[in-house]
Amino acid sequence: MKEKFTFFWKSHSPFSQWHKRSFNLNGMTFTCAEQAMMYGKAMLFGDHGIAQRILQTAEPREQKQLGRLVKNFDKAIWEQNCMQIVKEANRAKFTQHEDLLEALLKTAGTTIVEASPTDSIWGIGLAEDDPRASNRRQWKGTNWLGQVLTELREELMNLAE
């Protein structure tokens, strides 16, 4: 049986980290999942100054840039924690907005894929219209965001049963 995919890219998609939809997490309000992710990154490494600056901007591009400035960053520690940070942010985002949850649940039976030609970590390093995007073995990236969203969807579906 051929694997089916739900591709997304860019902030208009509810699956994007840059999709602007406020949600609450741990008593704080975030403008998008990117902000929660970068805030979580700063807090993981104890950089309270950058964490506060991330909270002060509503623009995902600026949040990402600030996240790159986190002091004492350790790639190995980040890689051990980043997917859980992203999953918690997305769980809050999707469970606090019925329309977003519905969109996520409609992807059942597919693997969610960030078809970003410029991101080979969180995405697949290919655009959706690239013929290689339909073959997991030909992806140029790890699709971490797609993995997180697919796992989250499965968890939420199991809770609903």
Fold and architecture overview:
The structure is a single chain. The protein has helices at residues 33-44, 48-56, 60-67, 75-95, 98-105, 144-160; strands spanning 5-8, 23-25, 28-30, 111-114. Strands 1-4 form a two-stranded parallel sheet. Strands 2-3 form a two-stranded antiparallel sheet. It is mainly α and 161 residues long. It is globular, with a radius of gyration of 16 Å. Strand 2 (23-25) and strand 3 form a beta hairpin. The protein contains 6 helices and 4 strands. Helix 1 (33-44) packs antiparallel against helix 2, helix 1 (33-44) runs antiparallel to helix 4 (75-95) and helix 4 (75-95) crosses helix 6 (144-160).
What is the oligomer described by this structure? Answer: single chain
User: The CATH topology, please?
Assistant: Tetracycline Repressor, domain 2
Helix-strand category:
mainly alpha
Q: Main β-sheet, in a few words? A: 2 strands, parallel
- CATH class assignment: Mainly Alpha
Count of discrete structural domains: 1
Q: Rounded to an integer, what's the Rg over CA atoms?
A: 16 Å
Adjacency order of strands in the biggest sheet: 1-4
